[in-house]
Specification:
Number of strands of chain B: 11
CATH architecture of chain A: 2-Layer Sandwich
CATH superfamily of the largest domain in chain B: Trigger factor, C-terminal domain
Strand content of chain A: 35-45%
Order of helices and strands of chain B: EEHHHEEEHEEEHEEHHHHHHHHE
CATH class of the largest domain in chain B: Mainly Alpha
CATH architecture of the largest domain in chain B: Orthogonal Bundle
CATH topology of the largest domain in chain B: Trigger factor, domain 2
Helix content of chain B: 40-55%
Number of helices of chain A: 3
Strand order of the largest sheet of chain A: 1-2-6-3
Distance between the termini of chain B: 62 Å
Number of domains of chain A: 1
Largest interface: A-B, 11 and 9 residues
Radius of gyration of chain A: 16 Å
Shape of chain B: elongated
Number of domains of chain B: 3
Structural class of chain A: alpha+beta
Structural class of chain B: alpha+beta
Order of helices and strands of chain A: HEHEHEEEE
Number of strands of chain A: 6
Number of helices of chain B: 13
CATH topology of chain A: Alpha-Beta Plaits
Shape of chain A: elongated
Largest sheet of chain A: 4 strands, antiparallel
Largest sheet of chain B: 5 strands, antiparallel
Oligomer: heterodimer
């Protein structure tokens, strides 16, 4: 798998930004990606050293909607979330903006 | 903070150059961002919790800068106004000053201000004003008017005289053609030469009840309806009856019947007092006018054009309002008088200038003397308005809303004028 297929997008949310010392970055990754694949992908794309990776499979929440009186149920997509911890002093910038830095 | 610089463009106009430091700007931006972020909801964040970086990425940094300027500009402007002790009379025209990178570094504001007025001596000014004492004749004349209100009508069988009350039909014609408003049936009226166009009342005098007669009368040159002014008219009068005004005897009984006074002498005193009060207030007003005229004569401070224009607007407004009350639109009124709005404005200009000059002077005096509208003054004014309109005070207050400020201005002006009059030396004219 190519590095850019492993890493799907940065995950920019309140929780992801409340990281420790600005050294942890959270991404949405391919559901089948392993920690090793993620490590290689991150190191390749951002030229940083990864100390640690935590992953979790997030189950999409059930969603229901009612349009024109017809109730239909659905579900937000499942995805895999990976939080990578970088070597102290390193950082990742996206388009010149470091979202994860407070 | 670096202070602002002031350039006088004209006697009543200044330009302020107010620098805004980058620290001030940054602080303002931080405040602006917090304000803006409050209402923003982006995916992944609760409302109001969006970090600045994410916010800027989504909405652009410019939105924060412009909000910051909106906040900071009035603030620094107000500060600069205080710093230079200016009295702006209008909203400033502002312009942004930016450095080469487009970052704002300050503002330039051009604003109209009050002219500096050298008040000169305004206390103890001598004013020549004749006092007109109330004479016995004045009192008797008032009593007669009171008596007339109580008069009874007695039918008489003699030719009508001026002062009688007659009932009649009339039909007026000019060159044999009836005109509008010239015809009436069964009109009851007092024959009073002043009340009608010349010749009408005198023409009727001498007629007996039941008679018919043609009466010539001439409309005066200055008549309200231009198409009738100066015209000769013939009125065909049918006189139905003639009544005489029988005045009640002027005695204690009369005094009791029309007032709480027990005797005619008491009523006389009462009337005299009332007349004296009227004459005193009239004299006071005359003194006020004379005083202002005298004080303003030597003044020739520059008048802010904007105030003069506003005053003219006000006058045009009043004119159009009074036209509307008499049932014509402003355009029709202009057509009738044969003037354009511009011509009318020019006509009003001199008056407007005089008014603005008076107002500015009065307000300068008020400032010098620390005359202000106290809450008690305002309450009193509101009460008198309430009485005038027959509404509760609260309702008046609510209806006024922000206009209470101009009400206060009015109070200050009146108080100041009273102050000036109180401090004037009134002397008999030589």
């Amino acid at each position: 798998m190519d590095a850019r297929d492993v890493i799907i997008s940065p995950r920019i949310t309140e929780k992801a930004m409340a990281n420790a010392l600005g050294q942890q970055y959270t991404f949405v990754v391919h559901p089948a990606a392993t920690k090793t694949q993620i490590r290689h992908a991150i190191e390749e794309i951002f030229s940083v050293n990864v100390l640690k990776i935590n992953t979790v499979n997030v189950r999409g929440k059930a969603r229901s909607s009612a349009r024109k009186g017809v109730r239909s149920s659905g579900k937000a997509s499942d995805f895999k979330k990976a939080t990578v911890t970088l070597k102290p002093g390193q950082k990742i910038e996206l388009g010149g903006v470091n979202y994860f830095e407070q | 903070m670096t202070s602002s610089t002031l350039t006088r463009l004209a006697a009543t106009q200044v330009e302020l150059e107010i620098p805004i430091t980058s620290e001030e700007l940054e602080a303002a931006q931080e405040r602006a961002f917090r304000k803006l972020a409050k209402n923003v909801r982006l995916p992944g964040f609760r409302q109001g919790k969006v970090p600045r970086k994410v916010f800027e990425q989504t909405y652009g940094a410019q939105s924060i800068v412009s909000q910051a300027m909106d906040d900071v500009v009035p603030e620094v402007y107000a500060k600069a106004v205080r710093e230079h002790d200016l009295e702006p009379i209008d909203r400033p025209r502002m312009e942004l000053i930016s450095d080469d990178e487009g970052n704002p570094t300050g503002i330039k504001a051009v604003v109209d201000v009050r002219p500096a007025i050298d008040l000169g001596t305004y206390k103890g000014v001598e004013i020549a004003q004749a006092t007109a004492p109330v004479t016995d004749e004045d009192v008797e004349r008032s009593l007669l008017t009171l008596a007339k209100d109580r008069a009874t009508l007695v039918p008489v069988d003699r030719p009508a005289q001026i002062g009688d009350v007659v009932t009649m039909d009339y039909e007026g014609k000019i060159d044999g053609v009836p005109f509008e408003g010239g015809t009436a049936q069964g009109q009851t009226t007092e024959l009073d030469e002043e009340r009608f166009i010349p010749g009408f009342a005198t023409g009727i005098a001498g007629m007996k009840a039941g008679e018919t007669k043609d009466v010539d009368a001439t409309f005066p040159e200055q008549y309200g309806q231009p198409d009738l002014a100066g015209k000769q008219a013939v009125f065909t009068i049918v006189l139905h009856d003639v009544k005489e005004l029988e005045l009640p005897a002027l005695d204690d009984e009369f005094a009791k019947s029309i007032s709480e006074n027990q005797t005619l002498d008491a009523l006389r005193d009462d009337v005299r007092k009332r007349l004296e009060a009227i004459s005193a207030s009239r004299a006071r007003r005359a003194i006020g006018n004379a005083l202002m005229e005298q004080l303003l004569e030597t003044q020739n401070f520059e008048l802010p054009e904007i105030l003069v224009e506003r005053e003219i607007d006000q006058m045009i407004n009043d004119a159009s309002g009074s036209a509307a009350r008499s049932g014509v639109t402003f355009e029709e009124y202009l057509a009738q008088t044969g003037k354009t709005e511009e011509a009318l404005r020019e006509e009003y200009r001199t008056d407007a200038q005089a008014r603005v000059k008076g107002t500015l002077f009065i307000e300068a005096v008020a400032k010098a003397e620390n005359i202000a509208a106290t809450p008690a003054d305002i309450a009193m004014e509101l009460e008198s308005l309430a009485r005038q309109y027959g509404q509760p005070v609260e309702k008046i207050r609510a209806a006024l809303g922000n206009n209470v400020l101009s009400l206060m201005d009015g109070i200050v002006r009146n108080k100041t004028l009273e102050f000036l009059i109180d401090h004037a030396k009134v002397v008999e004219p030589a």
